[in-house]
Amino acid sequence: MSTPPGQHPHAHRQDVEVYQGEYVWAELVDDEEPAKDDRQEQPGSSRPGDRRIAQYASTALRAVLGATGPGLRHGWQATMHWTTVGYMSDDEIRRRLVKKHLDTYVGQRDDTVHDINRLNKKAQRLARDAADFGLTREEALQLKDVAGELKRRRTAGLALAQIPFDVAAVQPTADQIRRYRTTQGLARFAGVIVPTGAATIGMIMSAPLAGLVALPVLAGAAWWLGRHPLQLTQRALPADLYGPPELELPARPVDPDNPTATPDEDLTPYPIARATTPEEAEEALRRAILHEGGDVEAVTDGRREPWGWSARVTFNTGSPDDLNADQTYKGLVTLLRVRRNGLLIEGDPDAGEACTVRMLLSDPFTPALVGPVPYRPPLSASITDIFDFGVAMDANELAFSLAGLMLLMVADSGGGKSGIMLAMAEAATSTVDAAVLNLDPVGTGVGDLGPAITLNATMSDKKIIAVLQFLLALCSARARQRAAYGWGNKWRVSPEHPAVLVFVDEWPQLSPKAKALLIKLLLLGRKEAIWVFGGSQYGTKDHLGEAIGPKLSAKLLGACRRVDVTELLGGGALAEGYRADLIRAATHTAVNDAGQIYGVGLPGMPDRPIRYQVREIPAQLAARLGAERAAAGLPDLTHTLTEAGLLMKWYELIKLCSGESSPGGEDGPELPEVLAQLREIFVRESDPDFLTMNQIHHHLRNDDPEQWGRWDDRDDQGRLRELGKTLARQLLKADVELSSERNTELDGNPRGYYLADVEKAISSLS
Q: Has this prediction a pTM greater than 0.70?
């Protein structure tokens, strides 16, 4: 049967009508049948328009429910995500649990401080009342009770403050984190979900109309959630859980023998020499500090050095200075198996909780690191230039200008004091605008530079006092010249107006009058470009004459006593890492740490507790440079002294100092050379009761190798026998009654000279 054009192929029956993508059952009327009038419908039958509306409503309802159902599901999932604390990561929960312990820890200490302050104010109020009005017996007892309670609280507070916060002990386990989630979930379900659901049901039952009004709102929200599902993820850590370092997860210990070991195994210290990587060195240091009771947050920046290892240590509590405490320091040295003085701690000036620790396994100053002495041609520099004197153990240069310095160098005999002063004088004599003066009451000072020194006053109190008096007069004259020239508050150094550098060795050996003049010069000379570089074996007031050391702008410390360090740098210097007391002075057979120093107040150099090595200027090199510079011409003081009206006095001073040196004092007689040499050797050795022939030969050979080194090819017995015979002949020729003696109290009964005998021989000549 064919279907007429435009007619549905199934118009003869009820079929499916397509409406907005949905198949809807409808009755289609065949065009061949006569249309029926609606008014002729049987009673109770539905009209086609009503059926179509019902169909549209059914379709719309299904569409709404298709989005509302998933929305309700998403809403329930979000509710459970909040209820079960799913938005918190395990790390956030761990931090919250640790923070609870930390807050308790801090709160206890804050409460203790609050109680102490409260009791202190109460005690002060009672004490004021007692002073103003007197006390009754009851008030006196109350004051006593308050004072006793305050003392107990302070003792308890001090003990409490010394207990560190144990980060590792309060770290929660995985089970504790799971229990936290479960407990929070049950609490929120019982405290929020159940009461909210019960309240909603009760409201609907008591006010159905309100429920009918709320239903479209809830349906709309559910429909929106169905179209815009929530992303149920874990949130980022809140800001308050980032700050305190105690909330960070402790670093896992690394054992070089077992890098994959679990965090629960022991932290037994091991020697730093076993470390082959920076991580292993960091762990060795961390374990050692923990073993000694340090509260370490982290050990980082491990670095292999030519002499060992260095690393940065950050503390949670306490101070990096604690590592320099005697017992802690000795314990770390033992645990790390480094040299006895091979642990150097340098505090970070910008981070009070951190420091750099250097662990020495060998000599830090190899010849390759120190480098050669730089050659400085005559008249090639200005005193305001920066001179390179040596190197720090981290390979940075020790370079600074000598201009404007009032400097004190303190080091024991053998610490390299004279050599360091010679290095500074060598740099000064290469300039075009600085004259060098050399003062030494018992030795030759920086005299190895020979004719490069403008003026020498050595081994004569009379000459030294004359030089110091002249320099004080020059200070006054230069002050007047500055005012006349309009130069402001400091002397302008130039070749026409040179600076004057005064090198004073063996400061404690100066006479009281010379010390007083020197201290006055230190106070007046800086503005007038008359700068003093003092050398001493001691840095305390009783040796220098006044407590002038701490006031000087620059200090160098070689091998010296602890009291010298604290006197010059302050009571906390040792804890900060200025461990000059650990530097070993040279002996007759070993160089040790001679020439190593700590420096403070050097222009352009940071004040940091790190060791420097000054390059040694051999005597032969100094003599050659001195001759070369003298031949090229020395800075001329004539012009400036003429303007000051002191030229004739200068010539008189040169004439006085050009005579032969004498240690006999202002009016004392000239001593025979051999006796003066013996007395100077005793001074260099800090005046011991007895010196062996071997010790004496060491100094004589260094002073004049050509004369006193003639027997070095012989054995010790033959060498010392020839030395004794030569000294005896020279003493006999000088008509000095002095002979060597055997000291039966020393091993081997060595022969030598007693200080008492040398001084007796000197007295016999007066």
A: no
